[in-house]
Structure formats: C-alpha cells, structure tokens
Request: fold
Amino acid sequence: MVNPFRTSAYWKSEHLRAKTDHVDAGMIARFCNAQDPELWQPASKDFVEIRSLVRELEYLKSQYVRLKVRSEHGAGYSISRVMKSMASEIRKLQAHIEDLIKKNSALKKRFRNLQSVPGVGKVTALVVMTEIGDKVNYLDRDQLVAYAGLAPRIFESGTSIRKSKGTSNPGNHRVKRAFFLPVMAAVRVSPVWKQCYDKFIQRGKPKKVALGAIMRKLFITCCGVMKTDTAYAAHLA
Reply:
C-alpha cells in the first residue's frame, strides 16, 4: 500500500500523455519494480476499531471547539443544548475507548507507558498509539519523524538562499497536531526538556524553531517507549 502522492509524482516523471487503466497499471508496476515498497501488514480488528473511535473522538472535540467559539458571539437557541449533548458524548466515547484498551493487555501497557512521558496525557497517548501503531517495529527514526510530518523542511539554492521553512507538509497531521500542547507542557514541567530547550535558545534559535525541535525529540521518545515496551526514563531522553 503506497501513498498515492508518490505514484502520482512517478507518473509525471515519466511524461505519460495518456491516463487509462492500462497505462496506470503499467506505471504502477514499473514504480514497484524500481522503488520496491515494503509489504503492507493489516492491523488487528481490535486496533482498527479503537483507531476509528479515537478519530471520531478527535472530530467531536474539534466540532465542540467550533461551537464554543460561535457561542462567544451570542449563543443561539440550540447551540448551548447541542454543546451539552456533545460534551456528554465526548465523555462517554473517551470512557468507552479506555474500556476497550483495558481489555487488551498489550495496548493497556502501551497506553500507560506513553503517559509516563512528560507532557503526554491521555489524548496525546491515544493519538500516538493508534496512528503510529506497529510502525515503530519496522520504520527507523527518520522515517517515523517523516511519517508524523515533523521533519524539518530546509530550502536552499546556491549560496544566496538558505532558510528553514518549518516542518514538512506531507505526513500524518493528527500526530503533529497532538504534540502542539504537550511540547509546551514538557518544557515547563520537565528539567530535561527545559534544559534542552534552553540550549537551542542559547544557540540563537527562535522560540518556534526550538519548540519544533523539542517536539520531534518528544515524539521520538514516545516511539522509543512504544518500541521498547517500557516506561519513560529521564536519563535516556
């Protein structure tokens, strides 16, 4: 199973003038022969169910925030009642997800270990656990960072243009979004991450760049916790 962005780019690189099922089949065969993509391993039924519920929870929370912003400009007749109902459903869904995790010993342990990482709470642990899953077992560190969309994006041309353009756009935006608040909490509560952040600032890095670097390190730490199946250890961070 390959990201269609890659096959689309490969199609353009071959300068094909027609697009039919026959032409596409030949292009995909040549792509697989040249790139040799890894075989896709389907996740377990329980894991797929929990991941689907976590995404549903994330969607409900985003809609709740939208309604909350709308209510600040004057709540209508129905908005306040819809918000109460939605808040109740969010609590019930999160409790249901945690009950499903408790029934699976492996997921239960992984969920607990992720929450031992400074700044990582239940919500972030759920997202990382379900979106990354078993990818920690066959992707290396750089591949995981790229998958999460946390890889730095450098823009260079000759000697006149050299700048950073933040993090890469391609990637799993659910994971990237899940680390915005945890990275600020980790820098505030953990001496290890605070010291690391201060080093970037002392080197003249802007605060946004420093937080982005810590975000990548925090994500890598979470992946390490999942891969080794152990709780967070400050001296290894």
About this structure: The chain has eleven helices and two strands. The chain has a mean pLDDT of 88. The first strand starts at residue 152 and ends at 157. The first helix runs from residue 4 to 13.
